[in-house]
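Researcher: Next entry in the queue.
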Amino acid sequence: MKPVHPSISSPYYDTLAALASQKKYMGIKYFTEYRELISTTAIITDFFVRDAAEYMLLSTGEEVRLDRLVMAGTFTPPSYGHLDFSCDCNQ
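Model: Structure for this entry, 91 residues:
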């Protein structure tokens, strides 16, 4: 049985496409398949579908599944909008 991946809503995808069109480096946070929170700085270079899941490709070569994206620039997907993923741990 193939896993079912949630589809990404059009307004969500449109926002990501607008960010990608800026071709600017931005902070990106996402969860891996093991629920590790990854934070990187990259440019969104492309979007694609693999095995019925939607992904974005970053300039670093990382492939981020869109349903695991936590933050791109200042944009936070609706599923994570109520959570705070900032870090005040500068010491």
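Model: Residues 3 and 51 are 9 Å apart (CA to CA).
Researcher: Noted, moving on.
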